[in-house]
Design a protein that fits this description.
Radius of gyration: 24 Å
Oligomer: single chain
Structural class: alpha+beta
CATH architecture of the largest domain: Orthogonal Bundle
Strand order of the largest sheet: 12-11-10-9-13
CATH superfamily of the largest domain: Hypothetical protein af1432
Helix content: 25-40%
Number of helices: 14
Number of strands: 13
Order of helices and strands: EEEEEEEHEHHHHHHHHHHHHHEEEEE
Number of domains: 3
Largest sheet: 5 strands, antiparallel
Length: 467
């Protein structure tokens, strides 16, 4: 039996667990045996206590398939949103880009929910599959830190946008506007809340025993400005850790990465939300976001010049064909070196790699690639566009076949396995292209006892990723 309960946000009762409920913000305390027609609904009913008043709460849809507090181990395979069918059960919670919990692990999906998630831009979802108990994608950062990041960045972005209040016809006055609003902009950029959240992010990355960047563990939704900034910052910090950056260097890198595209909020939305080609005039206007971002950051005494340089130089290329200044790089390791002058700053080179990769995976470059082809494209750009040494380091920590990715066998010595469905179960640190996989479904979609295959020990097995 299912039902709906809206629990006040202050409630911390152990029975109210996000892993067993679908949760939506709602300004009421509401109880019903049916789900509401919309995600938000108002109601006033007597609350426990002497008064009657509306409260902000969480709408909790109890799903009878998986009761609260089951304590089960995750059995998760990442499915393309188009391959999800009725009665599939979420293996992980789904969050909005702004950090709010949308659907919680254990929720049974229907066609209506699948279509809604697709409309919202979600490309993949984690689905519970029996027999894959040991398939647990490594979390780069915890859900609560990712949610904190989303809230902090969205608040900063919205605040900067409100300060500038720019319209397309007023773009020529932007530099003056940025200088005139220096005090207000400084209040929001590099706020104490954002700085603390970035430190939490750095701590989680440093405390992770391995540096394997499983992007499927990050938000799988078409990126907007702030979710893209969070992904880029996470990737950049993982690269920085691989180069043994000091804590202070990581803080400067993080502040530059999280604000690297802040100049875009000063431009008309159609210039950075469009996937198609820009006209020459539009592209010239788009290029100015690097300058606007640099002006905002460089006038803030709380932001290091090295962080501000990221906003200005993240579109510069190693061969000098980038913008806004056509600077060149040296394809050297991004280590502190005061002899490096008039070349792209090392933090900007790192962010350029992270930015390119995340844009390829989220469709912000006009095409959406899977992890395998995204990594290959970044490698192709190394040396001419992107710093070759950073690209090499990046490729060493990004598995081309991420744990949890659904797959289909395309070739095998045992021909009867061709067409079987499975999941990437575990990375091989010595060779990221030869992971362990688990097969759980025949070509006719019939469930079978799990078959574990270690590709490092089994030649001739080929597969394709379906997510």
């Amino acid at each position: 039996m299912g039902g709906i309960v809206v629990v006040p946000n202050r409630c911390r009762h152990p029975c109210v667990r996000p892993e067993s409920a679908a949760v939506f913000p709602l300004p009421c305390y509401f109880l019903s045996s049916r789900a509401p027609k919309t995600f938000t609904q108002k109601a006033k009913i007597p609350l426990p206590g002497p008064s009657i008043r509306p409260v902000w709460g969480r709408i909790v849809f109890w799903n009878s398939t998986f009761p609260p507090a089951t304590g089960r181990r995750k059995r998760m395979v990442r499915y393309n949103i188009d391959d999800v069918t009725d009665d599939m059960v979420l293996g992980e919670s789904i969050f909005m880009p702004t950090g709010e919990l949308l659907l919680a692990a254990g929720f049974k999906l229907t066609e209506r929910y699948r279509l809604r998630l697709k409309q919202m831009g979600f490309h993949t979802v984690g689905i519970q599959v029996e027999g894959t108990e040991d398939v647990t994608p490594e979390k780069i950062i915890s859900d609560h830190v990712q949610a904190e990041m989303a809230v902090s960045v969205s608040k900063t972005t919205d605040a900067v946008r409100n300060v500038l209040r720019v319209r397309k016809e007023g773009v020529q006055n932007l530099r003056k506007m940025i200088r005139e609003n220096k005090t207000q902009l400084n209040k929001y950029l590099a706020s104490s809340g954002l700085a603390r959240t970035l430190e939490k992010l750095i701590d989680e990355i440093l405390n992770n025993p391995t540096v394997v960047l499983n992007m499927s563990a990050l938000q799988n939704v078409k990126a907007d400005l702030f979710s893209h900034a969070i992904n880029v910052t996470t990737i950049a910090l993982c690269i920085g850790r691989k180069y043994h950056f000091s804590y202070d260097e990581l803080k400067q890198l993080a502040m530059g990465a999280i604000n690297f595209d802040i100049g875009l909020v000063a431009l008309p939305a159609e210039l950075h939300e469009r996937n198609g080609e820009l006209s020459p005039e539009e592209f010239k206007q788009y290029q100015q976001h690097t300058v606007y971002g640099y002006l905002m950051l460089s006038q803030n005494p709380s932001i290091a010049p090295t962080s501000a340089a990221v906003a200005l130089q993240h579109h510069e290329y190693q061969d000098g064909t980038g913008f806004p200044r056509g600077m060149k790089g040296e394809n050297r390791p991004p280590l502190k070196d005061f002899s490096r002058k008039k070349v792209i700053h090392r933090f900007a080179e790192i962010v350029a790699v992270a930015d390119t990769y995340d844009m390829l995976l989220t469709g912000r470059m006009g095409v959406t690639l899977d992890t395998y082809h995204g990594v290959r494209r970044v490698i192709e750009m190394g040396g001419t566009k992107l710093n070759a040494d950073i690209v090499k380091t990046f490729a060493s920590i990004v598995p081309v076949y991420p744990v949890g990715a659904r797959l289909r066998i395309t070739d095998a010595p045992a021909s009867q396995l061709v067409g079987y469905y499975g999941v990437v179960a575990r990375d091989n640190p010595d060779d990221l292209e030869k992971p362990q996989i688990v097969l759980y479904e025949t070509r006719k979609r019939l469930r079978i006892p799990p078959i574990l295959i270690d590709l490092a020990k089994r030649d001739g097995v080929a597969f394709e990723i379906l997510t």
